[in-house]
């Protein structure tokens, strides 16, 4: 009831500019295996992913309407079967292969290139590996070296998957970075992780700061024609250094945080505009 009240208030207060349908989320099963309920109820949520090839689990055969996008997270996932009740059209490539701390998904450029034809063979629209922010741009960056090999060998990357973590909440800097990525690789962009946090000081993140950043960043990305999709990191509490930084949208009981309320407000405005556009 409280959530619905905040959604209604948000719709009345927020302007709704013309936007495309591209809002998503990164999520995983919580201790009660209820995240699918939240995903299906979230306003104007178009897609989700969970860093795996199988959809979020739920008991029985629940109705599913939000698109699931599978990911080949690491080399050990290359041969895994995709499991989805809905038709799958898109596949995400390796997750932070340039990050030695990424729980086994780190890969050399040579190894990633060697495995890439197996991802292409799935016959799905294919996103690039999502490197860390620092590994995305620059002549010697992991992503630039990977894309050099893609282009030299005639391999296929249909869009760029990127991660962006702001350490100061500057949305204009985020926008400038996205424009630089697009200028560099000349492909559509999916922002598959973003938030306002310094991972060297995760405890310094605040719900208020992330609520403001989420709202402004989503509105910014919705207006950029080359940003096809975006997904906040993350729906669930994510524990690091023994505690969960204040970036999650809901707690394990599915109660919204201040970030979650802001996320609902901005997505509700998007949904209202989409409905109005369809009615014209």
Largest sheet: 6 strands, parallel
Number of helix segments?
Answer: 7
Strand neighbour order, sheet with most strands: 3-2-1-8-7-6
In total, the number of strands is 8
Helix-residue proportion: 25-40%
Low-pLDDT regions: 1-20
Order of helices and strands: HEHEEEHEHEHEHEH
Radius of gyration, taken over Cα atoms and rounded to an integer in Å: 18 Å
pLDDT averaged over residues:
91
Summing up helix and strand content along with how strands pair, one would put the structural category as alpha/beta
What is the straight-line distance between the termini?
31 Å
Shape: globular
Instruction: Tell me the β content.
Output: 5-15%
Structure report:
The structure is a single chain. The protein has about 280 residues and is α/β, with parallel strands linked by helices. The protein has seven helices and eight strands. It has helices at about 1-15, 35-40, 110-120, 140-155, 170-185, 205-225, 260-280, and strands at about 25, 45-50, 65-70, 90, 125, 160-165, 190-195, 225-230. The strands form two sheets. A six-stranded parallel β-sheet has the order 3-2-1-8-7-6, covered by helices on one side. Helix 6 (about 205-225) links the parallel strand 7 and strand 8. Helix 1 (about 1-15) crosses helix 7. The chain is globular. Residues about 1-20 have low confidence and may be disordered.
